[in-house]
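ASSEMBLY PREDICTION REQUEST
Request ID: AP-0331
Submitted by: J.K., bench scientist
Number of chains: two
Total residues: 569
Priority: normal
Notes: Please return the full assembly, not individual chains.
Input sequences:
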Amino acid sequence: MDIKDVEKLASLARIELPEDEKEQILKDMGSILEYVKQIEEVEVGDVAPDHTLHNAWREDAPDDRKFSRDSIIAQFPDSKDNFLKVKKILSND
Amino acid sequence: MIDLSNLTIQKAHEALTKGDYTVRELVDAYLGVIKEKNTELNAYLEVYNDIDTQVERAEKKFVDKTATLLTGIPFAIKDNILYKGHIASASSKILENYTAAYDATVIQKLKDAGVVVLGRTNMDEFAMGSSTQTSAFGVTRNPLDPTRVPGGSSGGSAAAVAANMALVSLGTETCGSVREPAAFCGLVGLKPTYGSVSRYGIIAMGNSLDQVSPLGKRVEDVEIIFNSLAAYDPYDDTSLPEGLRTPKDAKENKNNKKIGVPWHLFETGVDPQVMQNFKDSVEKLKSLGYEIIDIELPHAKYSLAAYYIIMPAEVSTNLSRFDGIRYGYSAKGDTLVEVYNKSRGGGFGKEARRRILLGTYVLSHGYYDAYYNKAIKIREKIRQEVLQAFQNVGLILTPTVPFLPFKLGEKMDDPVAMYLCDVFSAPANLSGVPSIALPSGKTKEGLPFSIQFMAPQNREDALFAVGKAFETPAVQ
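STATUS: Completed
Returned structure:
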């Protein structure tokens, strides 16, 4: 892994990193990956989970929830006419 | 004067029922200590402004004779538990101004019982850490020695109880985040069976691992809280349905008095004082009539390594919701991507950024099989191995933490050294079984030792039984 990889990960994760932190993160990632690498030596073979999954979703029906529309709208960093406002995602060029 | 140091839920309940003191007087006693100590310890980030209303609600229950054991009991809650109308920040700048829009299920239950929630406590940012030093709002100090860390990530909740700033508290665990601070602050901490306590309204870190976990001075307090909170919740898709909660043969289980010790897991890397205390604790358990059996958990030594792949993977997906768009910290930018990048770059602290990038890496194309897929297979192996061990023993015993509470500032520039705080915690979180940390004495300097037990799923009763047998008798 090198600085380019750190920059690529940061861009995938949508995190702006200060220049001086990239080196530090590279070093930290190196030591963490070195530690977790020990799982390579484990022979697990084909491990199948011995449980079965089932659907835990609720019925798709309106429900008397305790939070209000207002309490959510009030937290919008930017809004107009009670709608969430975001930057343009398509540009002309 | 109320003797806060030796107070239990049961004793407080009796005194409140008899009228020895009122809820107001009890709450004021704790608020007095908070006023005196919080500036130094920084256990609480905020003392709530609705305490008077909560006290009235509790006192009314005593008048109406509808009071239960928890009515009027002063609680502290970790800053990642939603309490409607109050800030819940997960000790992160990105949620610094986030006001909870609803109550977590555990808070609803506490409100119904009429507890008094005094405030929210400091934690490692998004529960990522083992010493409460990654909080965006300063470190919390250990009440037993303020030059040392209280453990983490629920360090504020542990320090609050240890310093008599709350009778009991709630923290959360993803991997040791309640048992380790319990160990460092000389408390009892319970990590319940995965799925037993609702996660609805808890700011998630690793969904397949997180559990709300109580802290107290005595086993009986932690037991009372667990019994009040553990119930099926339709709002939590991972909540255990009622039919799967009670094991059939709990009381008569032939293994109840058999304790397995996986000695091979701590041959190295454990502080000699901690090891000596552990051996002394084993002798004490023998004298209490328990049978000690050597057991092998061959894959358990890979628990922490598997955890540090699975958890960051879950972190990187979970924390993608914090983007500066709908709530929380939002930085200005010319484009949408710039708003994301600057809000997340500026809003998350160093450890959160590190774990998100690590998670992004282990989940990325080309590495997914080698890291994430391998780790979840190992996790399943560990789970099967732990369940297998419980065919022959009723409990598994290890030290809680390999070393004693360390000094503030230590381990901050060595992430792996910090992660090793939770090396013995990981098997319980990965396999979903319950585990309890118990005080097991103190060093000459007054630093606490701790041991921990694991039990089969839904056998919290076995943890409480051994805990009560092991702990020093209560002061009457």
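REVIEWER COMMENTS: Strands of chain A lie at 79-80, 83-84.
SIGN-OFF: pending second reviewer
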